[in-house]
């Protein structure tokens, strides 16, 4: 069975959108994944197929009704056991770890908000995970859904040409990736770091590791402290493990 993306949205025309091209597009053509949309408007109420209403408690904007979303969930033919995800700035940040979990399963069911968002009760009723793609506000969940799907699809078996490029990249070790260089070796007076031309693979690996650590420390203090903590834990475990071997060896 291929990986099934199902997207509940007021704008089904936005899918697969950019994911119909390049890597994800070729994978779509090959049937490695499939993208279905469920048009929220089809489940709207009355002559105007209204999907939203004013917020209880007052305030600006409109909120998408729970009954309308519920009907869309019921109509969507998503496999029963796939994670249900609502894209929202109020969600937990999307991480590569989550992306790996989604990609390893049968697919995802994504709910795209508009206006002020979706009535909270329908999210609870359907056990929906709330996921944010970053600390900024988009006009709708569709572009966030495309981001999540892009990140998942490239990890599906057979999608990326070089399997290794998925293993050795930013976040895979908890660090941001080292900088890249290609030909020409000198460009507009800027030379490539000498070591990359040395052919000394161990020295190159050490340089890249150093660069990854430096960039992570400068740009992402949050990732840096987590990485340091993990390293310390691993070292403690290694020492503890060695001590234990000695003990049993005696
Ligand atoms: N009033 C909301 C923002 C609504 S933006 C708030 O302050 O939290 C409208 C829709 O865009 C949301 O329902 C959500 O589906 C989507 N959206 C906006 N920013 C997003 C983000 N950073 N990540 C994921 N989805 C987002």
From TrEMBL:
It catalyses: guanosine(37) in tRNA + S-adenosyl-L-methionine = N(1)-methylguanosine(37) in tRNA + S-adenosyl-L-homocysteine + H(+). Signal peptide: none annotated. Its main location: cytoplasm. GO terms for biological process: tRNA N1-guanine methylation. Pfam families: tRNA_m1G_MT. This is tRNA (guanine-N(1)-)-methyltransferase. It is an enzyme of class 2 (transferase). Residues 5-225 form the tRNA methyltransferase TRMD/TRM10-type domain. Specifically methylates guanosine-37 in various tRNAs. The gene is trmD. GO terms for molecular function: tRNA (guanine(37)-N1)-methyltransferase activity. S-adenosyl-L-methionine binds at residues 113, 133-138. GO terms for cellular component: cytosol. Keywords: Cytoplasm, Methyltransferase, S-adenosyl-L-methionine, Transferase, tRNA processing. NCBIfam families: PRK00026.1, trmD. Gene3D superfamilies: 3.40.1280.10, tRNA(m1g37)methyltransferase, domain 2. Belongs to the RNA methyltransferase TrmD family. The keyword Zinc-finger does not apply. It is found in: Cytoplasm. Homodimer. PANTHER family: TRNA (GUANINE-N(1)-)-METHYLTRANSFERASE. Its EC number is 2.1.1.228.
């Amino acid at each position: 069975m291929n990986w099934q993306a199902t997207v509940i949205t007021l704008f089904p025309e936005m899918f697969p959108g950019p994911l119909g091209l390049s890597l994800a597009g070729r994978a779509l053509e090959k049937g490695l994944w499939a993208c279905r949309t469920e048009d929220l408007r089809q489940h709207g109420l009355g002559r105007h197929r209204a999907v939203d209403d004013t917020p209880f408690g007052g305030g600006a904007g409109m909120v998408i009704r729970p009954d309308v979303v519920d009907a869309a969930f019921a109509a969507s033919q998503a496999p029963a056991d796939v994670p249900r995800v609502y894209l929202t700035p109020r969600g937990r940040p999307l991480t590569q770890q989550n992306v790996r979990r989604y990609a390893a399963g049968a697919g995802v069911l994504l709910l795209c908000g508009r206006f002020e968002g979706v009535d909270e009760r329908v999210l609870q009723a359907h056990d929906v995970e709330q996921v944010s793609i970053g600390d900024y506000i988009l006009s709708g969940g569709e572009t966030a859904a495309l981001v999540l799907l892009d990140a998942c699809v490239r990890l599906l078996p057979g999608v990326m040409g070089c399997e290794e490029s998925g293993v050795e990249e930013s976040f895979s070790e908890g660090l941001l990736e080292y900088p890249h260089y290609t030909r020409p070796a000198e460009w507009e007076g800027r030379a490539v770091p000498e070591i990359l031309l040395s052919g000394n693979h161990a020295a190159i690996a050490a340089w890249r590791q150093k660069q990854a650590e430096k960039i992570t420390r400068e740009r992402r203090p949050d990732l840096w402290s987590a990485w340091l903590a993990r390293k310390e834990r691993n070292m403690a475990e290694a020492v503890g493990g060695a001590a234990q071997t000695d003990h049993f060896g005696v």
